[in-house]
């Protein structure tokens, strides 16, 4: 199953994957909510998941799918080259993490690898992870919980607290408490700074 919010991109995935012997696309989704319902209905062997979706992000979709099926195989295929974001995806339950700047063969290898229980991480992400570990660098993203990361993404997109609470099925108080905690953890004071942080951390596309 393919999860991406761009129909043209999904069509490109379909053409690439359908050419591979033994692989067949059984469904598509454009957002986290549809991805979860489609997964339950179709029970695909592997999900190819983008992280930047309308509404809740791919991390939220990964967490929901894995809560439903802890054996689900999910290959993240994303533009985000961020060590902290890759690790957060893996912790949420992703099987593999491949960037869209990688050779398309890496995506196919990751899909077949997931079918056989193997984890795959593209070389550029491995390099970013190694660099962060060696240098001790960090954007602060690693200090946020998956839920806080999710809320940060939605705040940075301009969503109001009521809408975030409804989308993530949590209370308004929880949204506001996490909003405050995110600022405290990151040492930021305004929502404008949160938006800038999200852009610099690769949580949001720059255009």
Q: Your description of this structure?
A:
The protein has 207 residues and is an alpha/beta fold. The protein has two domains: 2-135, Rossmann fold, CATH 3.40.50; 141-200, Winged helix-like DNA-binding domain superfamily/Winged helix DNA-binding domain (Arc Repressor Mutant, subunit A), CATH 1.10.10. It is built from ten helices and five strands; from the N terminus they run βαβαβαβαβαααααα. The chain has helices spanning 7-18, 32-42, 58-68, 83-92, 104-115, 123-135, 146-156, 161-168, 172-186, 191-200; strands spanning 2-3, 28-29, 47-49, 74-78, 96-99. It has a five-stranded parallel beta sheet, with helices on both faces. The model has no long low-confidence stretch (mean pLDDT 88). Keywords: DNA-binding, Phosphoprotein.
Question: What is the secondary structure topology, with strand pairs?
Answer:
Blueprint: E1 2-3, H1 7-18, E2 28-29, H2 32-42, E3 47-49, H3 58-68, E4 74-78, H4 83-92, E5 96-99, H5 104-115, H6 123-135, H7 146-156, H8 161-168, H9 172-186, H10 191-200
Parallel strand pairs: 1-2, 1-3, 3-4, 4-5
Helix pairs in contact: 2-3, 4-6, 7-9, 7-10, 8-9
Question: Which descriptors would you attach to this protein?
Answer:
single chain, Arc Repressor Mutant, subunit A, Tscrpt_reg_LuxR_C, 207 residues, Response regulator, alpha/beta, 10 helices, five-stranded parallel β-sheet, phosphoprotein, DNA-binding, Rossmann fold, 55% helix
Count all strands and give the number: 5
Measured by DSSP, the beta-strand proportion falls in 5-15%
Give the N-terminus to C-terminus distance in angstroms: 27 Å
Report the major sheet.
Answer: 5 strands, parallel
Helix and strand run? EHEHEHEHEHHHHHH
User: Uncertain regions: pLDDT < 50 for 5+ in a row?
Assistant: none
């Amino acid at each position: 199953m393919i999860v991406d919010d761009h129909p043209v991109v999904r069509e490109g995935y379909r053409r690439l994957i359908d050419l591979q012997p033994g692989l067949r696309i059984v469904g598509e989704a454009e957002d986290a909510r549809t991805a979860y319902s489609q997964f339950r209905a179709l029970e695909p062997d592997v999900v190819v998941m983008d992280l930047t979706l309308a509404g809740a992000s791919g991390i939220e979709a990964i967490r929901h799918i894995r809560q439903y099926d802890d054996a689900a195989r999910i290959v993240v295929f994303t533009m985000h080259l961020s060590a902290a974001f890759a690790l957060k995806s893996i912790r949420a339950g992703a099987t593999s993490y491949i960037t869209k700047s990688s050779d398309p063969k890496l995506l196919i290898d990751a899909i077949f690898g997931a079918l056989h229980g193997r984890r795959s991480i593209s070389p550029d992400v491995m390099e970013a992870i190694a660099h962060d570990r060696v240098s001790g660098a960090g954007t602060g993203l690693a200090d946020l919980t998956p839920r806080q990361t999710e809320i940060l993404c939605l705040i940075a997109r301009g969503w109001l607290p009521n809408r975030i609470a409804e989308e993530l099925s949590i209370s308004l108080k929880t949204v506001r408490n996490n909003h405050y905690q995110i600022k405290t953890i990151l040492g930021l004071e305004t929502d404008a700074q949160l938006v800038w942080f999200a852009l610099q951390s690769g949580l949001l596309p720059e255009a």
